[in-house]
Amino acid sequence: MNYKNFKRKIYLEDKPRAQAREEILAAFRLTPEKEEISTITSLGRVTAEPIFARVSMPHYHASAMDGIAVIAENTYTAHEQNPLRLKRGEEFCYVDTGNAIPSPFNAVIMIEHVDCPDEETIEIIEPATPWQHIRPIGEDVVQEEMLFPQGHIIRPADLGVLLAGQQTVIPVAKKPVVTIIPTGNELVEANAELAPGQIIEFNGSVFAGFIKDWGGEPNLLPIVKDEPEKIKEVLLEAAETSDIIVINAGSSAGSKDYTVHIIGEIGEVFTHGVAARPGKPVILGKINGKIVVGVPGYPVSAYLALEWFVRPLICKYLQIPEPKRQTVTVKLGRRIVSSMGAEDFVRMNIGYVNGQFVANPLTRAAGVTMSYVRADGLLIVPANIIGYEQGELAEVELLRPLEEIKQAIVFCGSHDLTIDLLSSRLKQVRTDMKIVSSHVGSMAGIMAIRKGEAHVAGIHLLDPSTKEYNISYINKLLAGQDVVLFPFLKRKQGWILPKGNPLGIESAADLARVNANYVNRQKGAGTRILFDLLLEEGCLTPEDITGYDREMFSHLAVAAEVNGDAHGAGLGIYPAAKAMDLDFVPVADEEYDLLMTRGFYESESGKLLMAIIQSAQFKEQVEKIGGYQVVENAEPKCLGVEV
Amino acid sequence: MNYKNFKRKIYLEDKPRAQAREEILAAFRLTPEKEEISTITSLGRVTAEPIFARVSMPHYHASAMDGIAVIAENTYTAHEQNPLRLKRGEEFCYVDTGNAIPSPFNAVIMIEHVDCPDEETIEIIEPATPWQHIRPIGEDVVQEEMLFPQGHIIRPADLGVLLAGQQTVIPVAKKPVVTIIPTGNELVEANAELAPGQIIEFNGSVFAGFIKDWGGEPNLLPIVKDEPEKIKEVLLEAAETSDIIVINAGSSAGSKDYTVHIIGEIGEVFTHGVAARPGKPVILGKINGKIVVGVPGYPVSAYLALEWFVRPLICKYLQIPEPKRQTVTVKLGRRIVSSMGAEDFVRMNIGYVNGQFVANPLTRAAGVTMSYVRADGLLIVPANIIGYEQGELAEVELLRPLEEIKQAIVFCGSHDLTIDLLSSRLKQVRTDMKIVSSHVGSMAGIMAIRKGEAHVAGIHLLDPSTKEYNISYINKLLAGQDVVLFPFLKRKQGWILPKGNPLGIESAADLARVNANYVNRQKGAGTRILFDLLLEEGCLTPEDITGYDREMFSHLAVAAEVNGDAHGAGLGIYPAAKAMDLDFVPVADEEYDLLMTRGFYESESGKLLMAIIQSAQFKEQVEKIGGYQVVENAEPKCLGVEV
Predict the structure, then answer these.
(1) Contact call for residues B486 and B631 (beta carbons, < 8 A)
(2) What is the Cα–Cα distance from A44 to A156, expressed in whole angstroms?
(3) CA distance A384 to A371
(4) Which residues pair with A100 in a beta bridge?
(5) CA dist., res. B412 & res. B420, Å (int)
(6) Would B397 disulfide with which of A165, B137, B239, B325, CB 3.0-4.6 Å?
(7) More confident residue, B638 or A291
(8) CA angle at A616 for the pair A615 and A617, rounded to the nearest 5°
(9) Which residues in chain A have Cβ-Cβ distances shorter than 8 Å to B43?
(10) Distance from the first to the final alpha carbon of chain A
(11) Residues B13/B273, Cβ–Cβ less than 8 Å
């Protein structure tokens, strides 16, 4: 068979995800195996069959109190005016909680209600009723009672009931073995020296983590090269030794995407492509009776496809329901566009601002792993909907506990490296709080405050006419809103240049003169506005600058681009240049301030944040980075409304 | 020191729980230790410090599509009417997704938009813009960017980001070692032969499970006898080797409760008793700088005290917030009485009936482990509230996923052993469904249907005047409500007697004659009503029967009581007698029917349940037990309203 023939064949289906799922579940016909394990090691395991109590609990009539055991019928004459005296031995005995009630006693009187003239005699002033303060046999568990059905996940307290019932060994479902096969000539192990075009194999470890979390037994194989014969061999062997096979990647239609053809040749392909994004190019099939799932290479696509198709198989094997994520209703901060005919899984940031959950989409690029790691939730846009308008309410599946989202301070606006430091410090002081930041630029930061989507915005906007930072913009854009501007940092902006500044760049005019590859910032970023001002001052236009349209979203991203390119140049803050060991030519000392609503400023969270910013410890940490000066005795300004 | 002196000293405090918690957290001054571990083994561990990216991701300009790489500036003339032909090598090269873009190319055109006259030539009809379909360096992660702060719990997807950033080893917080010391002369290991008064030591294993779940490293010691010197020695040794010590029990004020005195002698006691139930008799102290928590012996008290005081210490050590449980608002099915001045933690069953969450308290006895295992949630009654009225709304902390509660069929009424079988069968067919049953008796079952607190009630109520089962009761109690009565079982009721029937009991008159220890059922139970009828028929009164007031809540519980007592006798169903190998003298063939609202009967869940009941497989399983006959071709009756 000549795999070359397939290399440009593009034939992905758009099968509805639910249909693909039903088909694969129906095809998964394994009889779950069970194993007997020691109960004390069974935490998190799943019962394979109903478990019944072997003994009752308590297995004897037990005292429920510290006190004395008596024969109730003999106490009926006891009265305040006529105390009854009983002798130890035949007439009463001492019992502690949990002690067996010796025959013929049939009631317990609490020690607090007993008067003890001496150790051998007691006096009571109230009769006891039969069986009072006695835990009858089986009060907790009766012998032969069903303790747990099959498919029950053992929790800590369950161990107690099992052990108390003398179930020291229990039958649990064997964990299904899921073999993970990473394929690709571009893949290298995580500790390898990286050449361009090489990618670290990490999907396999992530898959193994998910599979473990879901109750399976992952078996991660070493990287397999893109050689059809080798892949075939490994697949056939996996079909012998595993319950489920996951192969990554080669599931799409690129020049080395053999997987679907191989599975078709040695087995059966049910599905190639589902109507869901990202994660569309998935393969579902069967080899020698074992289900094989071909998962796309882009991490986010891969994680979703794994959840859609591998998790249900594991749950079916274990006889447990698929866990559902908690959901929350959010207000959408931006319009969300989705394609008709396919489900869209949109990673979302969620903030809790002014008593409302507000959510914004993260990048939809399937290759951006951090977008999944940073996401608070998933918005699933159904196939028959083309999206949502800004301001609409939508239901989002949570990827983090709601409490964590509620306690987070939403930081928006311009990117600065000290914000990570501030977040880390805040988390040290209050482990249940953190800062969630998105780098959208100063202007977008102001708009986020205006729309009630963020608690704090970092801004550094120079007004060319007044040469003053931030205030004129706020007065214009937030007129009538009650906001506070908190002076935070003075920081150095300058040219970020390759080590040694080989092109000798000192000004915008130099950029144009030497035709440097400039790396710009996105529209609305303070640094972009500064650059435009520098162009204007130098009587230059965007057309004079190569790379003016190449936009990055952070100082570090600009520095990273300059880092690889001897002709590169960017504008940004000193610590970004320093972090990548690049040259830095100062251009301006700018004011980076924090804008917030007065409501937040005066809240407990706001006060805590300001206190941390002004602490000597934080100041010292920031200034150690270099290029920064924390504003001493900062005087917050109330803006927006007349005060 | 003579510990005997303390044996009857009762001096538990009622310190507010929050205060006790603050004090112990303030006293816990350990500096968390960290350890470097391999990233692939770090799932669920907690970062000990912020983690920064070592390399950018991608670390080169990567193609985002399968296609060709070109120099954008050279494609500007391409047009539908003027296709541009490019030669492989200098003018274009093939790239797959993820490939590095070779210099001097700066744009990618998707393979779908390319025409290939031959392998070495392509034609395009649209110009490319610079950097299109190229993932810039650092699109995902930029070198030096903070990936995670300290105190972050590693999830599967996080592994990907760490490995991609070549962080193959990461610093995580060491797990705090929590030594668990079980004490008590009454304790024996789970596999021991049990004598009356002996209790299986299981709390330690449950504690170990909780501690593991919370991120600690449990160290469970063997059982220590109630010998003060021995306990002292073990405590002092634990203070050397652990971060936190848990001792169970001896924390109360019984005759062997030495613990508080020992801790006071070799260390310091902060708290003895908190204003919370169950769990009040807790000890908080310190020995040689290590926090020691003395936990009460009753399982439910112990689990709560552990959560109140040990979990916060572990979280503080790991620098993570304490997880909070999801809550749900429920309607209370019964009145809840609580003591003023102390918080009450009430275990609750929650059902989702008619679109509403309805909750009822389980037993409040601290010794009933199953009540914690069976609980769906915890109702926390604050110290300044004396309880809630029936029908009031209250917030309940969930012990199970809400979805599981929503999917459960709430079964109420009379106890029958086949209900467990039915639940198990249902779960086999639909892993996400189950039956939650509470044994409250037939009358209470009817009332639960009336109040909308249950989906199904099992009832067997004989009308003495008509000798007919169930219908007259429903017509009286559910007039005007649209309900369905589904004929389920014919079953044998009879005398449950010690093996060989030594007292020769055949009738109620015999019970009175031989003065047997009768074990009765609770008021409203169908079996109780049957017994009262038998008394009436025999011209007897409750006073003639010893044990008439001793009430059990299930057939098995009655059988368990009879089992230990040669003079015992009870009334119940055949399988209960059979399960405990007791004698059975039949008294009546009764009709055990299922009562439900018509809404449930016609719902998807209702239809599924009826289908299972009428399946040959279920019928066979039930009849194998003995004493049962499943009603063939059951004809449900619509009652309550005129149809």
Answers:
(1) no
(2) 9
(3) 25
(4) A62
(5) 13
(6) B325
(7) A291
(8) 90
(9) 209, 212-213
(10) 80
(11) yes
Question: Could you say which residues from 405 to 424 on chain A have a Cβ atom under 8 Å away from some Cβ of chain B?
Answer: 407, 420, 423-424
- Determine the straight-line distance between the first and last CA of chain B, rounded to whole angstroms: 80
Do A229 and A187 touch, CB atoms closer than 8 A? Answer: no
The answer for residues whose C-beta is within 8 angstroms of residue B4's C-beta and 6 or more apart is none
CB contact under 8 A, A137 and B99: no
Tokens of A200: 């670290």
Q: How far apart are CA B338 and CA B335, in angstroms?
A: 10
DSSP B17: H
Where would I find the H helices in A242-344? 259-266, 299-318
Task: Specify the higher pLDDT residue, A31 or B94.
Answer: B94
Contact residues, chain B, for A557 at CB < 8 Å: 136, 138, 142
Considering the entire predicted model, what is its pTM?
0.90
In A364-417, which residue ranges form alpha helices assigned H by DSSP?
Answer: 369-374, 402-406
Residue A157's closest CA among B301, B476, B558, B32? B301
Segments of chain B scoring below 50 in pLDDT? 1-10, 643
Q: pLDDT tens for residues B159-195? A: 999 998 889 999 999 999 999 999 998 899 888 888 8
User: Interface pTM (ipTM) of the complex?
Assistant: 0.89
Residues B135/B142, Cβ–Cβ less than 8 Å: no
**Residue at token pair 């009721």:** B493
Q: How many residues does chain A have?
A: 643
Residue B243 burial class via C-beta count within 10 angstroms: exposed 0-12, middle 13-18, buried 19 and up: buried
Higher pLDDT, B55 or A461: A461
Tell me A462's DSSP state: B
Contact A139 B368 (CB under 8 A): yes
CB contact under 8 A, B143 and A580: yes
The closest alpha carbon to B135, from A346, A560, A276, belongs to: A560
Asked if B468 and B620 count as a contact pair (C-beta separation under 8 A), the reply is no
Q: Which of residues 612-641 of A touch B (CB under 8 A)?
A: none
The three-state secondary structure class of B302 is helix
Structure tokens at A567: 């002709």
Determine the Cα–Cα distance for residues A613 and A456; give it in Å rounded to an integer: 13
From the list A60, A94, A161, the residue facing B373 with the nearest CB is: A161
A515 touching chain B per CB within 8 A: no
DSSP secondary structure string for all residues of A60-88: S-EESSSEEEE-GGGGTT-BTTB-EEEEB
A323 in reach of chain B (CB within 8 A): yes
More reliable by pLDDT, A449 or B12: A449
Which residues is A487 bridged to in the sheet? A593
Distance CA B319, CA B49 (A): 10
The predicted pLDDT at position A642 comes to 52
pLDDT band at A383 (very low <50, low <70, confident <90, very high): very high
* Cα Rg, chain A, nearest whole Å: 34
Among candidate residues B571, B578, B413, the one with its CA nearest the CA of residue B493 = B571
A403: three-class secondary structure by DSSP: helix
Q: Nearest to residue A296, comparing CAs of B166, B137, B97?
A: B97
Greatest Cα-to-Cα distance within chain A, rounded to the nearest angstrom: 114
Q: How far apart are CA B581 and CA B570, in angstroms?
A: 14
Could you tell me which residues are beta bridge partners of residue B220?
B180
Q: What is the mean pLDDT of chain A?
A: 91
B407 contacts A50? CB cut-off 8 A:
no
